[in-house]
Amino acid sequence: MSFEISLQHSVGGRTVALELASDARLTALVGPSGAGKTTILNCIAGLRRPDTGRIAVDGLTLFDSGNGTDLPPERRGAGYVFQDLRLFPHLRVAQNLAFGERLAPSGLRRMDKEEIVGLLGIGHLLRRWPATLSGGEARRVAIGRALLSGPRFLLLDEPTASLDAERVETLLALIERIRDHLAIPILLVSHDRDEVERLAGAVVTLP
Amino acid sequence: MSLRVSLVAVLLSLPPAYAFAWLLARRRFPGRLLLDAAIHLPLVVPPVVTGWLLLLLFGRAGPVGGWLEAQFGITLVFRWTGAALAAAVMALPLMVRAMRLSIEAVDRRLVEAARVLGASPWQAFLKITLPLSAPGIAAGAMLGFARSLGEFGATITFASNIAGETRTLPLAIYSGLQLPGAEAQVARLAVISIVLSIAALLASELLVRRSAGSRAHVL
Hints:
The structure holds 2 protein chains of 2 kinds. By secondary structure, chain A is an alpha/beta fold. Chain A is built from 6 helices and 10 strands. Chain A has helices at 37-45, 93-103, 113-120, 135-148, 165-181, 193-199, and strands at 3-11, 14-22, 26-30, 52-57, 60-64, 69-70, 78-81, 153-157, 186-190, 202-205. In chain A, the strands form 2 sheets. A 5-stranded antiparallel sheet of chain A has the order 2-1-4-5-6, with helices on one face. In chain A, helix 2 (93-103) runs parallel beside helix 4 (135-148) and helix 3 (113-120) runs antiparallel to helix 4 (135-148). Chain A is globular. By secondary structure, chain B is mostly helical. Chain B has one domain (2-215): MetI-like fold (Orthogonal Bundle). Classes of the chains: A alpha/beta, B mainly alpha. At the A-B interface, helix 2 of A face helix 6 and helix 7 of B.
């Protein structure tokens, strides 16, 4: 199983509940805004602690309220591309990319930096500051930063949000390539049905 | 003399000030309000009272002062080191305030992103929180420096006014005013203190501008 998730979490009087077991390369999580999709990604990445449940990815249990397992975020191996990107403003693009790369456990299979920079088409941006990037450029850098941290799985939160149609097409093609070339499970959060249909092997809908 | 006292005071209080600022900005713990109040005490209490409290604590008969003297042979009262301690305590609240604001301004989501990328809490602090709050550290150090240059009440109470040992600029000006015919000397010292203060202010403003771009200002 790539993703095995069973969790319940209450935030501000609302309860988010999810049962998910998927073996697809790319699993999509869909639902209206406010349904708790980002909350679930945060729970998987270890930034938020679910009230109860169990989260396992690729056979490794990350969280289990039953036996008290709760790995800290740095040991979960998530490659999380936030919807708000969160590039480090005081570091140049190259240093942003290197941030997770240097911290990646040496045992993990590392992806080649040249290859990823080429795949994302961000080679000409390396010396720039994040504040000077366009939305699409910043998103590709954020994806690169996540890929280079030696992730065991990827979490993509609305990767095509706020991009124009042409950029969306480029990015979807890119995600397809990542999905087909890198053998790691991907969980995609989206509200776009077409996007999901095109990319996902399995779809889970939140109410 | 004044410069050495102020520099030592600022360097001495920089690490604890940043630690307090971080605690107050990022942690919720029992006694947080109490710590906040204790740090701000020197700002609101008359300096003479602060000096007297220091005397009680760090005097030769005080719990901390007695221990320092017995263990290391260090005496603070009536020494320039004592003047530095008094200046540091008086400067602490201003430094903590400036640093706390800058730590609170560091986006927690960036710290989360660093953690997900594999950074331990300590690594995330060193690589994200610390550099991004650097302008606040510079601003705090400058405020602290200016504050300790002007420190009078706590210093004269705790370290006294000994020429060549604890007579800082403000104390020297005060002493000059007590003597007939020292007006020229008083004026000279006053000019020096004004120049030093303005230089500190400008230096830190330049520092902050260079480190944080034109967005951040101390002034």
